[in-house]
Specification:
The structure is a homodimer.
Chain A: E1 4-5, H1 11-21, H2 23-29, E2 31-35, H3 37-44, E3 51-54, H4 56-61, E4 71-75, H5 77-83, E5 92-97, E6 111-116, H6 121-133, E7 138-142, H7 151-157, H8 160-163, E8 165-169, H9 172-181, E9 185-189, E10 195-196, E11 208-212, H10 221-226, E12 229-232, H11 244-254
Parallel strand pairs in A: 1-4, 3-4, 6-7, 6-11, 7-8, 9-11, 9-12, 10-12
Antiparallel strand pairs in A: 2-5, 3-5
Helix pairs in contact in A: 6-7, 6-11
Chain lengths: ~260, ~260
């Protein structure tokens, strides 16, 4: 029978909250916090949780949670409330290890999403979810992107965090140079000086990287200039833009790697 | 020089807040509330505001707001705070008329988005934005959809509310019957017993209606059964679903009516 943590000041609980709230702590410790049955079981298909916390009530409703690997502890309802990032906590919380990936994990012939300064965690999460669904092998997050391991992004990604390689770069140029080194074609999303999406090839035997930019400003001009090709999504008269997750996902759909 | 409203209890301000908060009031009065420069000026390209409220500070920063049609009034910062649905109000608020549209506004050869029980206002707004961008002529909202005129949906729609016909139906069957009456082909999104999206025609000279369902449950089985065709977005192994706004938008993109 696992221990029960009753105190909101317990050191393990404070540690879990720190991982939930701080990108720096997540990075330094190589761990992240996840909440809820669907997300945690989805992540646990590829990653082994190191800590598993649940309420008595949660375990009664979902006895299968007892099968998760890692160190288990019960938490009181008051502690669950402290741990939760949502209004109505289900009562399951896990700490998972982050994989540490680098550009040497890129593969020839692979498909990659590359984000530059995508700042809304919900957009980062939704784009990772689309990339995983459309058969992409990994994602590179450049510059000031929201942390994909933050709770809001992790929830929106629906387990894609565990399914794909994730690589971080300070400058987009590092990512473009790495793609080129591996013979991967780099395609930038840009409203101007770009080809309409339907005119772009869909088969890239050497691999393809799709670059999407900041919600308000798009990609930096030097990023677009360094890409092999720029594409835009044609829009009806008077419409200036799409939701950022939608626009990026339509590009990922065009360059998808899934079969019927 | 317009009046200045200083009191948070002013009847016009209470009326604006009621339109902001109540779908029933919006429906009964045929009006809706919008906030912020980008959304209000975008809507004002097609709809004439009946009331325009701004702070002195806002008008100094954006003197062009004085050119908006409708009855103008200054509001104090305290009143702007009461009116605002956001954390940092810009200081511009308008009340617009809703167009009242019915199935008789459908056109042969048109393109329509049809939503069934799409409950998140951000999804409703993002789908309308995509539909407008991809050259759709209108949208039908069936059953328990979030109100597209609610502030969160209106913000996410980015002016699409004013660009497209919007029709409301209690039952999806009414919409499908109306589409068929006009010779419009009805296509349902469904994970099972459906063709992969890339196998679906893109040219429908008689018109096309794309049906998307609830975020968690999809379309009702009887809705799918009444459609002329069902399509699914093929996904990679292990991925069960996409963000609802993304999935619907990929379908809208496939059936788009925009030229390069």
């Amino acid at each position: 029978m696992p221990d029960t943590i009753q105190s909101r000041e317990n050191e393990r609980i404070k540690h879990a909250c720190a991982l939930r709230d701080s990108a720096a702590r997540r990075r330094a410790e190589g761990l992240f916090f996840a909440e809820g049955l669907r997300l945690c079981t989805d992540l646990a298909q590829s990653l082994c949780p190191v800590e598993v916390y649940y309420t008595q009530r949660f375990l009664q409703a979902h006895p299968e949670a007892a099968q998760l690997p890692g160190r288990h502890a019960f938490v009181s309802e008051a502690v669950a409330e402290k741990l939760s990032d949502t209004r109505s906590p289900q009562g399951l919380f896990c700490i998972f290890p982050r994989r540490a990936q680098t550009f040497s994990d890129l593969g020839r012939g692979g498909r990659y999403l590359c984000m530059e300064h995508v700042q809304d965690p919900a957009n980062v999460g939704a784009l990772l979810r689309s990339a995983a669904a459309f058969g992409f092998d990994g994602a590179v997050l450049c510059g000031a992107c929201a942390d994909p391991f933050a709770p809001k992004a992790a929830r929106a990604s629906m387990g894609a965090l565990a399914r794909m390689a994730l690589i971080f770069a300070d400058e987009t140029k590092q990512a473009i140079d790495a793609f080129h080194l591996y013979g991967i074609t780099v395609i930038a999303a840009a409203l101007e000086h770009s080809a309409p999406l339907e005119a772009a090839d869909t088969a890239f035997p050497g691999g393809v990287a799709v670059l999407v930019g900041n919600e308000g400003n798009g990609l930096a001009p030097q990023t677009v200039a360094s890409a092999d090709m720029a594409v835009r999504i044609p829009m009806a008269n008077g419409v200036e833009s799409l939701n950022a997750a939608v626009a990026g996902s339509v590009l990922l759909w065009h360059f998808r790697g899934v079969q019927q």
